[in-house]
Protein backbone atom coordinates (compact mmCIF):
# COMPACT_ATOMS: atom_id res chain seq x y z
CA UNK A 1 0.00 0.00 0.00
CA UNK A 2 1.84 3.09 -1.23
CA UNK A 3 0.03 5.64 0.90
CA UNK A 4 2.99 7.92 1.52
CA UNK A 5 3.09 10.15 4.58
CA UNK A 6 -0.45 10.66 5.86
CA UNK A 7 -2.34 12.82 8.31
CA UNK A 8 -5.41 11.25 9.94
CA UNK A 9 -7.98 13.70 11.34
CA UNK A 10 -10.96 12.51 13.42
CA UNK A 11 -13.98 14.41 14.71
CA UNK A 12 -15.61 12.75 17.70
CA UNK A 13 -19.38 12.38 17.53
CA UNK A 14 -21.25 14.22 20.27
CA UNK A 15 -18.38 16.58 21.15
CA UNK A 16 -16.25 19.27 19.54
CA UNK A 17 -13.06 17.22 19.93
CA UNK A 18 -10.85 16.94 16.83
CA UNK A 19 -7.64 14.92 16.96
CA UNK A 20 -5.52 12.47 15.00
CA UNK A 21 -2.05 11.33 14.06
CA UNK A 22 0.70 11.79 11.49
CA UNK A 23 2.41 8.72 9.97
CA UNK A 24 5.54 9.37 7.95
CA UNK A 25 5.77 5.86 6.47
CA UNK A 26 3.47 3.90 4.16
CA UNK A 27 0.62 2.06 5.84
CA UNK A 28 0.83 -1.71 5.30
CA UNK A 29 -0.94 -4.77 6.68
CA UNK A 30 1.35 -6.13 9.37
CA UNK A 31 0.94 -8.14 12.60
CA UNK A 32 3.48 -5.91 14.37
CA UNK A 33 4.03 -2.22 15.00
CA UNK A 34 6.33 -0.35 12.62
CA UNK A 35 7.05 3.26 11.57
CA UNK A 36 9.59 5.76 12.87
CA UNK A 37 10.06 8.58 15.36
CA UNK A 38 8.85 11.25 12.90
CA UNK A 39 5.29 10.11 13.68
CA UNK A 40 3.22 12.04 16.21
CA UNK A 41 -0.28 12.40 17.64
CA UNK A 42 -2.11 15.71 17.93
CA UNK A 43 -5.27 17.49 19.02
CA UNK A 44 -6.90 20.42 17.20
CA UNK A 45 -9.92 21.01 19.44
CA UNK A 46 -10.38 21.91 22.23
CA UNK A 47 -6.73 23.00 21.84
CA UNK A 48 -4.00 22.66 19.24
CA UNK A 49 -1.26 20.42 20.63
CA UNK A 50 1.24 17.96 19.16
CA UNK A 51 2.70 14.94 20.92
CA UNK A 52 5.99 13.74 19.40
CA UNK A 53 7.69 10.41 19.87
CA UNK A 54 9.07 9.67 23.33
CA UNK A 55 11.47 7.05 21.85
CA UNK A 56 10.58 4.75 24.77
CA UNK A 57 9.39 2.14 22.28
CA UNK A 58 8.83 1.79 18.54
CA UNK A 59 5.06 1.24 18.53
CA UNK A 60 4.51 4.05 16.04
CA UNK A 61 1.79 2.63 13.76
CA UNK A 62 -0.19 -0.57 13.27
CA UNK A 63 -2.66 -1.75 10.63
CA UNK A 64 -4.29 -5.16 10.43
CA UNK A 65 -7.46 -6.63 8.94
CA UNK A 66 -9.14 -10.00 8.53
CA UNK A 67 -7.33 -11.92 11.28
CA UNK A 68 -8.78 -13.86 14.21
CA UNK A 69 -5.79 -14.03 16.55
CA UNK A 70 -4.72 -10.36 16.40
CA UNK A 71 -6.67 -7.10 16.77
CA UNK A 72 -8.03 -5.72 13.51
CA UNK A 73 -7.90 -1.98 13.04
CA UNK A 74 -5.56 1.00 12.85
CA UNK A 75 -3.50 2.01 15.85
CA UNK A 76 -0.81 4.49 16.84
CA UNK A 77 1.22 4.29 20.04
CA UNK A 78 0.95 2.35 23.27
CA UNK A 79 0.10 -1.36 23.25
CA UNK A 80 -2.47 -3.40 21.37
CA UNK A 81 -5.69 -2.95 23.28
CA UNK A 82 -4.36 0.25 24.88
CA UNK A 83 -3.33 2.44 21.95
CA UNK A 84 -2.92 6.19 22.14
CA UNK A 85 -5.16 6.28 19.06
CA UNK A 86 -7.17 3.34 17.76
CA UNK A 87 -9.73 3.12 14.93
CA UNK A 88 -11.85 0.00 14.59
CA UNK A 89 -12.07 -1.62 11.13
CA UNK A 90 -15.60 -0.28 10.58
CA UNK A 91 -14.18 3.29 10.86
CA UNK A 92 -17.23 4.20 12.95
CA UNK A 93 -15.77 3.80 16.43
CA UNK A 94 -12.40 4.02 18.10
CA UNK A 95 -10.61 4.58 21.38
CA UNK A 96 -7.86 6.55 23.07
CA UNK A 97 -6.70 4.50 26.05
CA UNK A 98 -3.49 6.25 26.93
CA UNK A 99 -4.14 7.24 30.52
CA UNK A 100 -2.35 8.85 32.06
CA UNK A 101 0.10 9.13 29.12
CA UNK A 102 0.77 7.13 25.96
CA UNK A 103 4.20 5.53 26.30
CA UNK A 104 5.05 6.05 22.61
CA UNK A 105 3.94 9.67 22.16
CA UNK A 106 3.57 11.01 25.75
CA UNK A 107 0.02 12.02 24.77
CA UNK A 108 -2.96 12.08 27.14
CA UNK A 109 -6.40 10.81 26.15
CA UNK A 110 -7.09 12.57 22.83
CA UNK A 111 -10.87 12.16 22.78
CA UNK A 112 -13.49 13.31 25.25
CA UNK A 113 -14.63 9.72 25.79
CA UNK A 114 -12.11 6.89 26.04
CA UNK A 115 -14.27 4.82 23.67
CA UNK A 116 -15.70 7.22 21.10
CA UNK A 117 -17.97 7.24 18.07
CA UNK A 118 -16.58 8.84 14.92
CA UNK A 119 -18.53 11.69 13.36
CA UNK A 120 -16.08 12.01 10.45
CA UNK A 121 -12.56 10.92 9.59
CA UNK A 122 -10.23 12.27 6.91
CA UNK A 123 -6.90 10.94 5.66
CA UNK A 124 -4.62 13.41 3.88
CA UNK A 125 -1.57 12.40 1.89
CA UNK A 126 1.07 15.02 2.66
CA UNK A 127 4.03 13.35 0.94
CA UNK A 128 4.23 10.77 -1.82
CA UNK A 129 5.51 7.30 -1.07
CA UNK A 130 9.25 6.83 -1.76
CA UNK A 131 8.29 3.72 -3.76
CA UNK A 132 5.97 5.74 -6.01
CA UNK A 133 7.67 6.85 -9.22
CA UNK A 134 6.94 10.06 -11.06
CA UNK A 135 5.69 8.03 -14.03
CA UNK A 136 2.89 6.36 -12.05
CA UNK A 137 0.51 9.13 -13.13
CA UNK A 138 1.50 8.78 -16.78
CA UNK A 139 3.99 11.62 -16.98
CA UNK A 140 6.82 13.10 -14.98
CA UNK A 141 6.33 16.28 -13.01
CA UNK A 142 8.25 19.05 -14.71
CA UNK A 143 8.41 22.81 -14.58
CA UNK A 144 7.75 23.29 -18.29
CA UNK A 145 11.41 23.06 -19.33
CA UNK A 146 11.82 19.30 -18.95
CA UNK A 147 13.12 19.61 -15.39
CA UNK A 148 11.64 18.73 -12.03
CA UNK A 149 10.27 21.55 -9.85
CA UNK A 150 12.75 23.24 -7.54
CA UNK A 151 12.74 22.48 -3.84
CA UNK A 152 11.13 24.67 -1.23
CA UNK A 153 12.05 24.76 2.45
CA UNK A 154 8.56 23.40 3.15
CA UNK A 155 9.04 20.25 1.03
CA UNK A 156 11.17 18.60 3.70
CA UNK A 157 8.52 19.07 6.42
CA UNK A 158 5.12 17.91 5.12
CA UNK A 159 3.88 17.31 8.67
CA UNK A 160 4.49 20.95 9.59
CA UNK A 161 2.83 22.11 6.37
CA UNK A 162 -0.30 20.09 7.10
CA UNK A 163 -0.60 21.47 10.63
CA UNK A 164 -0.04 25.03 9.43
CA UNK A 165 -2.77 24.60 6.84
CA UNK A 166 -5.20 23.28 9.46
CA UNK A 167 -4.34 26.19 11.76
CA UNK A 168 -4.88 28.63 8.86
CA UNK A 169 -1.34 29.98 9.17
CA UNK A 170 0.32 31.70 6.23
CA UNK A 171 3.37 29.85 4.87
CA UNK A 172 5.76 32.44 3.51
CA UNK A 173 8.33 29.87 2.37
CA UNK A 174 5.92 27.82 0.26
CA UNK A 175 6.70 29.79 -2.91
CA UNK A 176 10.41 30.27 -2.22
CA UNK A 177 12.42 27.83 -4.32
CA UNK A 178 16.11 27.09 -4.21
CA UNK A 179 17.44 28.10 -7.64
CA UNK A 180 20.36 25.68 -7.42
CA UNK A 181 18.68 22.47 -6.25
CA UNK A 182 16.54 20.03 -8.23
CA UNK A 183 14.40 17.38 -6.55
CA UNK A 184 16.35 14.65 -8.32
CA UNK A 185 19.77 16.10 -7.45
CA UNK A 186 21.36 14.49 -4.36
CA UNK A 187 23.52 17.50 -3.51
CA UNK A 188 23.94 21.17 -4.23
CA UNK A 189 24.95 20.98 -7.87
CA UNK A 190 25.09 24.11 -9.99
CA UNK A 191 24.00 23.76 -13.62
CA UNK A 192 26.36 25.75 -15.84
CA UNK A 193 23.58 26.53 -18.33
CA UNK A 194 21.44 28.00 -15.55
CA UNK A 195 24.37 30.07 -14.36
CA UNK A 196 24.99 31.41 -17.86
CA UNK A 197 21.30 32.25 -18.33
CA UNK A 198 21.22 34.09 -15.00
CA UNK A 199 24.35 36.09 -15.79
CA UNK A 200 23.04 37.02 -19.23
CA UNK A 201 19.78 38.30 -17.73
CA UNK A 202 21.66 40.33 -15.11
CA UNK A 203 23.92 41.91 -17.74
CA UNK A 204 20.92 42.82 -19.89
CA UNK A 205 19.17 44.49 -16.96
CA UNK A 206 22.29 46.43 -16.06
CA UNK A 207 22.71 47.54 -19.66
CA UNK A 208 19.09 48.73 -19.94
CA UNK A 209 19.14 50.51 -16.59
CA UNK A 210 22.57 52.11 -16.90
CA UNK A 211 22.62 55.90 -17.53
CA UNK A 212 23.96 57.21 -20.86
CA UNK A 213 27.68 58.00 -20.91
CA UNK A 214 28.71 61.55 -20.04
CA UNK A 215 31.10 63.33 -22.37
CA UNK A 216 33.29 66.15 -21.15
UniProtKB/TrEMBL annotation:
Its main location: cytoplasm. This is MTOR-associated protein MEAK7. One of its GO terms (cellular component) is nucleus. GO terms for biological process: response to oxidative stress. It is found in: Cytoplasm; Lysosome; Membrane. Residues 1-127 form the TLDc domain. The keyword Membrane applies. Residues 127-156, 174-216 are annotated as: Disordered. It comes from Dimargaris cristalligena. Keywords: Cytoplasm, Lysosome, Membrane. The lineage of its organism: Eukaryota, Fungi, Fungi incertae sedis, Zoopagomycota, Kickxellomycotina. PANTHER family: MTOR-ASSOCIATED PROTEIN MEAK7 (PTHR23354:SF131), NUCLEOLAR PROTEIN 7/ESTROGEN RECEPTOR COACTIVATOR-RELATED (PTHR23354). Pfam families: TLD.
Amino acid sequence: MRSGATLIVIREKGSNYIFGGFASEDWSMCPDFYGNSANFLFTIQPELRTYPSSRINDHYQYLNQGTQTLPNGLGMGGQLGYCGLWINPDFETGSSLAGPRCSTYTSPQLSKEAHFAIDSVEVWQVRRSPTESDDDDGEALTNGRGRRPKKSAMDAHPDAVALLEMANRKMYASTVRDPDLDLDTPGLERRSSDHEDDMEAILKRRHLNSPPPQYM
